[in-house]
Specification:
With 537 residues, the chain is α/β, with parallel strands linked by helices. 36% of the residues lie in helices and 22% in strands. The protein contains 18 helices and 23 strands. The strands form 5 sheets. Strands 13-12-14-15-23-22-21-18-19 form a 9-stranded mixed β-sheet, with helices on both faces. Strands 5-2-6-1-7-10-11 form a 7-stranded parallel β-sheet, sandwiched between helices. A 3-stranded mixed β-sheet has the order 16-17-20, covered by helices on one side. The longest helix is centred in the N-terminal third of the chain and has 18 residues. It starts with a strand and ends with a helix.
Length: 537
């Protein structure tokens, strides 16, 4: 018997059905029953990681403690499970092929012809089992990106087929997530797309053990019976996944449907205990019954796509629940902010967050936003590029360095208050070369940051190439923009504040990556509270 059990989650009919949320919800239920569980994502694209992808292409790039640039689904996994993920939790086709080609170049295949089967599939199977062989987990859930039948998914599906056979009965199962569409003209739900999807999976040699059916309407008993019969699964293994008002409802919905119970039965594992979701449901209760509302402006460059700032939006949900406040996030495109429009776009807000990003598009709008928040005393949080904009704005409008800029935007600026990091200057490859992952930061004990974190030493995740230029540190400090957080090894500035302002902070790191349901990030909690105080005053 395999020590670790495996659950594979595949998708059919269409993408964006929520495989990540179903995987995270099942993992949450198994964890709540006492099983040590983790989730990994296999992405079929040929990029080595999503680090070089435009947010419009694939949503935000999520960064782990160990510096992996990964798919945004890993953010869901961490938010649901409150357990850190790592490089091993996200595998792409690009990384698989890169590894196999490097082995071939080193001569590791002893002159064999390198082929998809067995070399690529062996590499995939190895990656799938890294987490299982670590001894840290009872159950590993593996989500396979894309849909069954996609050309790029075939090697993954074949690897799963081989693993199911190698691991043996009761050690690995397949959950197939599919769509049961409602045709309003006919006034009924249609099972045919699901039947075709299951058939495509079976043509690849894999039989689904559990069907999870995404639907907008309740699945009647006759539909469930039909799906069970035609898709060759047990009646209790047809699970309804109906549209929910929030993704955080899904674990409870899956519990009602018995998804965890069926999975444990198929894996021949005991139901150690009833799932303990007390803390989870307390959060849900606060989230759904707020006592107040605040409106916070999210000023960014990729606001048309919600997924571009996924972790920030979720961090506001966690922080809102903690404060018993509904956070209404107003997305504002920085490209369309100028002197004439700024008051109409920003004056009514209770708080302003200037978001991360790359490149010069929309920069002047971000700088104007910071100036407005600073001059009118509106609570302000700047993240990564947002913090850098705060430094540029202060240098220009308070210090009088009219040409102040970042060398990312203007290489020839006479006042480079933000500059490329020394170790980044000779880098030519863009992928995976930024300052990435968890770094320590030391806080000044008389700072707002210290009040927020209640700790002198913190660790936060980074993703950037440009930094605060220490040559301007004293000038800015004397003018009232105070550096209050530093990297203990390099002395680089991580946090800036304006003590004269009701609540003003810029951070070089990404606090949103570490906010979870169980541990809302203290910075977001404090920022939302500041917005509420501002509103009530």
């Amino acid at each position: 018997m395999a020590e670790t059990k495996y659950i594979f989650v595949t998708g059919g009919v269409t993408s964006s059905l929520g495989k990540g949320i179903i995987a995270a919800s099942l993992a949450k239920l198994l964890q709540a029953r006492g099983y040590k569980t983790t989730i990994q994502k296999l992405d079929p694209y040929i990029n080595v990681d999503p680090g070089t992808l435009n947010p419009y292409e694939h949503g935000e790039c999520y960064v782990t403690d160990d510096g992996a640039e990964t798919d945004l689904d890993l953010g869901h996994y961490e938010r649901f499970l409150n357990v850190n993920t790592s490089q091993a939790n996200n595998v792409t086709t690009g990384r698989i092929y890169q590894s196999v080609i490097e082995k071939e170049r080193r001569g590791e295949f002893l002159g064999k012809t390198v082929q998809v089967v067995p070399h690529i599939t062996n590499e995939i199977k190895e990656r799938i089992q890294i987490l299982g062989k670590s001894g840290d987990y009872d159950i590993v859930i593996t989500e396979i990106g894309g849909t069954v039948g996609d050309i790029e998914s075939l090697p993954y599906i074949e690897s799963v087929r081989q693993l199911l056979w190698e691991l043996g009965d009761n050690n690995a199962i397949v959950i197939h997530l599919t769509l049961v569409p409602y045709l309003s003209a006919a006034g009924e739900l249609k099972t045919k797309p699901t039947q075709h999807s299951v058939k495509t999976l079976m043509e690849s040699g894999i039989k689904a053990d559990i069907l999870v059916c995404r639907t907008e309407h309740e699945l009647a008993d006759d539909i469930r019976a039909k799906l069970a019969s035609f898709c060759n699964v047990k009646r209790e293994a047809v699970i309804q996944s109906i549209d929910a008002s929030t993704i955080y409802d899904v674990p409870n919905l899956m519990l009602q449907e018995g998804l965890d119970t069926v999975a444990l039965q198929k894996l021949a594992l005991p139901e150690i205990s009833e799932p303990n979701l007390t803390q989870w449901n307390q959060f849900l209760n606060r989230h759904k019954n707020p006592k107040n509302t605040v409106t916070i402006g999210l000023v960014g460059k990729y606001v048309e796509l919600q997924d571009s700032y996924k972790s920030i939006l979720e961090a506001f949900i966690h922080a809102g629940a903690e404060n018993e406040v509904k956070v209404k996030v107003e997305s504002i495109h920085s490209e369309y902010i100028d002197e004439e429009t700024i008051a109409s776009k920003i004056s009514h807000l209770d708080g302003i967050l200037v978001a991360p990003g790359f490149g010069e598009r929309g920069i002047e709008g971000k700088i104007a936003t910071v100036q407005y928040a600073r001059e009118y005393g509106i609570p302000f949080l700047g993240i990564c590029l947002g913090m850098q904009m705060a430094v540029i704005e202060y240098a220009r409008n308070v210090l009088g360095l009219k040409d102040a800029n970042s060398t990312e935007m203007n290489k020839n600026t006479s006042a480079p208050v933000i500059d490329i990091m020394e170790e980044q200057k000779n880098i030519t490859h863009l992928g995976g070369t930024m300052r990435l992952g968890a770094w320590d930061c030391e806080l000044k004990d008389d700072s707002l940051a210290f009040k927020v974190y209640r700790n002198i030493l913190i660790s936060e995740r980074h993703r950037h190439r440009y930094e605060f230029n220490n040559s301007y540190k004293e000038q800015l400090k004397n003018a009232g923009l105070i550096p209050t957080g530093f990297n203990p090894e390099t002395g680089l500035v991580e946090i800036v504040e304006i003590p004269e302002h009701p609540w003003f902070m810029g951070v070089q790191y990404h606090p949103e990556y570490k906010s979870t349901v169980a541990n809302p990030h203290p910075l977001f909690v404090a920022f939302v509270k500041a917005a509420l105080d501002y509103k009530t005053k």
